[in-house]
Amino acid sequence: MEKFKTYSIAIPLLLFLDGTIMQLIFGKFPINSFRFPVNFTLIFALLIILALVFIFYKTKTIVKFLSSGYAALSSILFFIFHVIIMVIFSQNDHYSGFWGAIGFHKITETWSYAYSSLYLLLSLGMVSFRRLTPFNTRNIFFYFNHFGLWIVIAFASLGQADKLKLFISVPENDIVWFGTDSDGNFHEIDFAIKLNKFNLAFYSPQLAILDDNGELLKVKEFHPVDFVKDTEIKYKNFNFKCLDLYEDAIIFKDSVVFIDDLPEKTWLGTVEISNKSRKDTVYLSTATSFHPPKIEKLGKNLNLILLPSEASYFGSKIEIYTEKDSKPGKFIIEVNKPLKLGNWTIYQNSYKKNPGNVNYISIFSAVYDPWIKIVYVGIVMMLIGAIYLIFSRKKEFKK
Amino acid sequence: MIWQILNITFIIFVSLWLVGTIFVFFNKNKIKTTKISLILPGIANLILLTFIILYWIEIERPPLKTMAETRLWYAMFVSLIVWVIFIRTKSKPLYLLGFIMSTVFLLVDLIHPEYQTKNLMPALQSPWFIPHVVIYMISYAVLAAACLTTLIGYYNYLKSNTIDHENLRLAMNLVYPGFALLTIGMLLGAVWAKIAWGDYWSWDPKETWALLTWLFYMLCIHLDYSFPNKRKTLMFLLAFSFIVLIITWLGIRYFPNGMSSIHVYGN
Lengths: 399, 267
Known about the structure:
The complex is a heterodimer of chains A (399) and B (267). Chain A is of the alpha+beta class and 399 residues long. Chain A folds into three domains: 2-163 and 372-398, no CATH class; 166-201 and 312-368, no CATH class; 204-309, no CATH class. In chain A, 36% of the residues lie in helices and 31% in strands. The two termini of chain A are 32 Å apart. With 267 residues, chain B is mainly α. Chain B has eight helices and no strands. The longest helix of chain B is centred in the last third of the chain and has 33 residues, at 165-197. The interface between A and B is large, with 61 and 54 residues.
């Protein structure tokens, strides 16, 4: 056992040392070299090697160590070390200097991180083989927990080499057949998206107080409130009562003017302000890029305003053109409701607008992730294992 | 507004628990003690649950968005879990510590109520939202009970200089389901993220901290399983893991990149 203790300390140290040297010589870990079929072959080979080693060296140190508690603790701790680096150091690969050179500012792209994942895979894999026998309930769920995690780590790390995520910006009534990846590279895709209509809905704005530096007042006595008719709120000597709220309206020469097709959502609200010395009704309006907000200054660091409203819904009515289909398919894509299209899944990512333009630009993300189904198998196995774990100590608890 | 009656809810909740605690520690009639000390906190939990439901109805969205709202759930679950453990084990110190912990979290809500809005951003309008957050909250509460049990064990260790194996066993009996719920909460979050954004894992600061918490509890379980003689190390590791958990939940904004997390909202 003393030997195992030495291994459990020496292996992570050596892996980290070797990983750091590799990092200094070759730069970041070349994950993109592991595209299909390399990744699949490697995972398959790893499984075969683990199985063969387990079968032929069952009583040898290597199998005993890798399936022992020492290897489990050592591999988990080595992985924890990398996650700790991740929370301590800003994860931005533009950082230079010593920490940047050894990869601490982009730890998931380091050799050391890749080694720690491999070490986890070896330990998890070996213990999974070891617990295949005896075939009993406890071992089955143990297997779900451990081999499920094995699948997730293997296919999520090596599978990412094949993953492609493109951002596609489509203006209303326009058609687009290309996207950009996270590095800004253009990619032509095998379908085109036409945005027929971008739908957007808003919550009502909130009544708030800003100080003279533009900071929002959030104290126990006052916090922003949803602008709902007859809502009353007190702060210092003032009593504020929300009255009417007008959508797509501005105040012009003391009159409420409604305007169709305003380029941005604009709210106008009337608020009754009262204290010992005054009681009057004022107009407040939200700020947009084409007009300033209408605020009510009540004193030093006391400016009553309407905050711009938050989106409650956004979604796109689109047509998809593909080479295969002669007629375009019509779809609606919303947040949390992506569209599956062949090998791609299209998501409603966000939206933007050109200042001064009435139309919106809908931003989609199209994701090609060929290994996702296998990752889901791993996730389901882990979920089954976790459900068993909830009740695994029930008898013990009753003692 | 329902939130305005949180102070009354708090007073009733604390009073009922307090009377229950007094009966647990000072009454000599054991049968009566047990009954009263069970019934009163049970009612207190029901009252807090009723408050959450009424608040939920009023704001027309699941009250799981802001830190203040998650603290409410946490106070309720911690209180509920120590109550259930008391039914089974009659652990007096845990009863007291659980009550104090729930009270502290409710008190923070009274001091920092944050602002309550009906708004719920489109990304959170998903059937995955409630199970993801509620399972995490239950898990955090179970692991809080495990940590409190460990602290009691550590106090006993300091007093007698011998490991309190009974307490540590109870703590681990809580860590197993707590860790399992942590796993389920994390995996549900990953599936939801895949459906919403196309990535099941994006190394968001909150995700990274959540993974760290998960790994530390994984370490506890493996230490307990493979090294049954390392009880003292296990005690420290359990306490430390809970600190990591609390940072994950409440403290990531104080770390580099913390504020860039998509999970920092509602404040």
